[in-house]
Specification:
Oligomer: single chain
Distance between the termini: 31 Å
Largest sheet: none
Number of helices: 3
Structural class: mainly alpha
Helix content: over 70%
Number of strands: 0
């Protein structure tokens, strides 16, 4: 993701928050951003190849579970 995309999405989320939209969007953005960055990092480590099939999908689900469990125990 390019920095302009991240800034644009962040600005959109800020606008949505000011309009009263739920904070789940912020959690979703963080999940997607973390999974994409993890996928990019793993591909760099493995010289542009994936470690296992459906790596991007698996990383998204794993990070979503970690964030959900963390937020569940914080409450």
């Amino acid at each position: 993701m390019c920095p302009a995309c991240v800034i644009t999405i962040g600005g959109g989320l800020l606008l949505a928050k000011n309009l009263g939209v739920n904070n789940l969007l912020i959690i979703g953005l963080f999940t997607i951003l973390a999974s994409l960055l993890t996928d990019i990092l793993l591909r760099k480590i493995n010289h542009g190849k994936v470690f296992f099939p459906y790596q991007r999908v698996v990383m998204t689900v794993v990070i979503m579970l970690i964030i959900s469990l963390t937020l569940n125990f914080i409450k």
